[in-house]
Specification:
The structure holds 2 protein chains of 2 kinds. By secondary structure, chain A is α+β, with helices and mostly antiparallel strands. Chain A has 8 helices and 4 strands. Chain A has a 4-stranded antiparallel β-sheet with strand order 2-3-1-4, sandwiched between helices. Classes of the chains: A alpha+beta, B mainly alpha.
C-alpha cells in the first residue's frame, strides 16, 4: 500500500516538473528523472505534449506584446544623467573611490575591526595633542605649493596592522609627521596626511617605502589622488 | 539564458556599479523588452509598463553596487519589476484596473468560442492564457517565457519552491477549465 502511495506521489512530483522540463530549466539530474518517467509512462508523455502546447502559446502570446517605445529609454537615461550630476563623481574621483574600495575589500572584517579600534583611540589622542582636527577641513588632495610643484602634504588611505598597539601607531604618526584626517571608512580605512616637501611623485614613493618597511604597523596603503 | 550571458550580465552590473553609463545601455538593450512584457502582462497598460521599466532599470543603476550575484541578473531585475508592478496595481482603484486591463488585453483573434469554430486551437489557448488570474499569469510567464527555474521563480515571487510547483499546477488546471469552457477538451486533469 505504501509502495502504491509512493508511486502516486512520485508520479505527481514528476508531473509537476514537466513545465520546467519543457522549458529546459531543470537540473540534469531532474531532467534525466523526467526523461525516464516519460519513456515508460504513455499517459505522462501525452500530458507532456499538453505542456509543450502551453509553452509554445505562452511564448507566442508574449512575443505578440511588442516592445516599449524609445520613451522608456529616454526617461531612464534622463533620470540617470540627473542623478549622475549629483551622486556620481565623474572621472578620477569616482575611479579612485572604486579603486580604494577594491583595494581594501580583501581584508577580513575582524582584522579591520581591531585595527580601527586602535586607530580610533589614536585619533582621540591626536585630537588632544594636535587640537586641529576639528578646525581643519578634511582635505581630499594635497596642498600644492604655488610655483615649484612641491607639495606640503601627501594623503594616503591606510589600513593599520591588526596587531598594532596604540603606542606603535602614535610613534608612527609622530615619526612621519603624519596625522589621521578622516576615517574610519568602510570599517578600518583611514585617511592619513603626511607632511611633505618635494614633488608629489617623490613624496609618494618615499612614503610608500616607509610604510612598506613597517608591516607590523601598516598593513596596506594607497595614495589619495592628486 | 545561457551561462555566458548570465556571466556577462554580472560583468555589466560590475561596470554599472562603477558608474559606467554604456554598460547600462547594453544591459537595457539586452533585457528591456522581456522586462517590459513581464510588467505589461501584470499591469495591462503599455504606458504604465513603460514608466515602470524605466523605474526598474533606474533601480538597477542605483543598486548595482549592492548586487551580490546570488541570483542571475535577469532574476533580480524581474523581482524588482514584479514589486514595482504590484505596487502600481495597488495604487489603482479596482474599477480602473479592470477597465484598463480589459482595454489593453489584445484582441488580435476572435473570442475563444469563435476561434474554436474556426478550429484555431492555438488561438483559443492564447485567449485562455490571457484570462488567467494575475497570480497564475505571472507564474506561467516566468516558467514558460522567461525560462526561470523553480528556485528562481521562488525568489522572484517570494514563495517556497514547493508552492511554486503547486501554484503552477493549479494555474495549468485553471487553464484546462477555461479551455474546457471554450469547448476544448484536453483529457486533463
Amino acid at each position: 500500500m505504501n509502495t502504491m502511495s509512493e508511486k502516486v506521489d512520485d508520479r505527481q512530483e514528476i508531473e509537476n516538473l514537466l513545465p520546467w522540463h519543457a522549458a529546459g530549466t531543470l537540473s540534469r539530474r531532474d531532467a534525466e528523472r523526467v526523461e525516464r518517467a516519460l519513456a515508460s509512462d504513455q499517459e505522462l508523455a501525452r500530458r507532456f505534449e499538453l505542456v509543450r502546447e502551453e509553452l509554445a502559446e505562452t511564448i507566442h502570446l508574449n512575443e505578440s506584446l511588442g516592445a516599449p517605445s524609445a520613451r522608456a529609454m529616454e526617461k531612464l537615461f534622463a533620470a540617470i544623467d540627473a542623478e549622475g550630476a549629483v551622486k556620481r563623481k565623474p572621472g578620477f574621483a569616482f575611479d579612485l573611490r572604486t579603486r580604494v574600495s577594491e583595494f581594501f575589500s580583501a581584508f577580513a572584517p575582524r582584522t579591520l575591526a581591531y585595527a580601527s579600534g586602535v586607530a580610533a583611540l589614536v585619533i582621540l589622542l591626536q585630537a588632544g595633542v594636535i587640537g586641529d582636527l576639528a578646525l581643519n577641513k578634511p582635505a581630499k588632495t594635497s596642498e600644492l605649493a604655488s610655483v615649484d610643484l612641491k607639495v606640503k602634504s601627501v594623503d594616503f588611505f591606510v589600513i593599520f596592522s591588526p596587531q598594532i598597539s596604540t603606542e606603535q601607531l602614535t610613534n608612527f604618526l609622530h615619526d612621519n609627521k603624519a596625522k589621521i584626517v578622516d576615517g574610519p571608512k568602510g570599517g578600518a580605512t583611514y585617511q592619513v596626511r603626511f607632511e611633505a616637501d618635494g614633488s608629489p611623485q617623490d613624496e609618494i614613493a618615499r612614503l610608500k617605502k616607509v610604510m612598506e618597511a613597517q608591516p607590523k604597523v601598516v598593513r596596506s596603503e594607497l595614495e589619495v589622488g592628486h | 539564458m545561457s551561462a555566458n550571458q548570465a556571466t556577462s550580465d554580472e560583468v555589466l552590473i560590475g561596470r554599472i556599479a562603477k558608474g559606467d553609463r554604456l554598460a547600462m545601455q547594453v544591459l537595457f538593450a539586452r533585457h528591456h523588452v522581456r522586462v517590459y512584457r513581464f510588467v505589461l502582462r501584470l499591469v495591462g497598460n503599455p504606458t504604465t509598463a513603460e514608466d515602470l521599466i524605466s523605474d526598474v532599470f533606474l533601480d538597477v543603476w542605483r543598486q548595482a553596487e549592492k548586487f551580490e550575484g546570488r541570483s542571475a541578473v535577469s532574476t533580480w531585475m524581474l523581482a524588482i519589476a514584479r514589486f514595482k508592478a504590484l505596487s502600481a496595481l495597488r495604487k489603482r482603484p479596482d474599477e480602473e484596473l479592470d477597465e484598463k486591463t480589459a482595454e489593453t488585453i489584445e484582441d488580435a483573434s476572435d473570442n475563444p468560442e469563435v476561434a474554436l469554430e474556426k478550429k484555431d486551437k492555438s488561438a483559443v489557448l492564447r485567449q485562455c492564457l490571457e484570462k488567467l488570474s494575475l497570480e497564475h499569469r505571472e507564474i506561467v510567464d516566468l516558467v514558460y517565457y522567461h525560462e526561470k527555474s523553480v528556485e528562481e521563480v521562488a525568489e522572484i515571487v517570494g514563495i517556497p519552491e514547493n508552492t511554486v510547483k503547486t501554484r503552477l499546477f493549479y494555474a495549468r488546471k485553471k487553464l484546462a477549465e477555461l479551455l474546457q469552457a471554450a469547448g476544448v477538451e484536453r483529457g486533463w486533469p
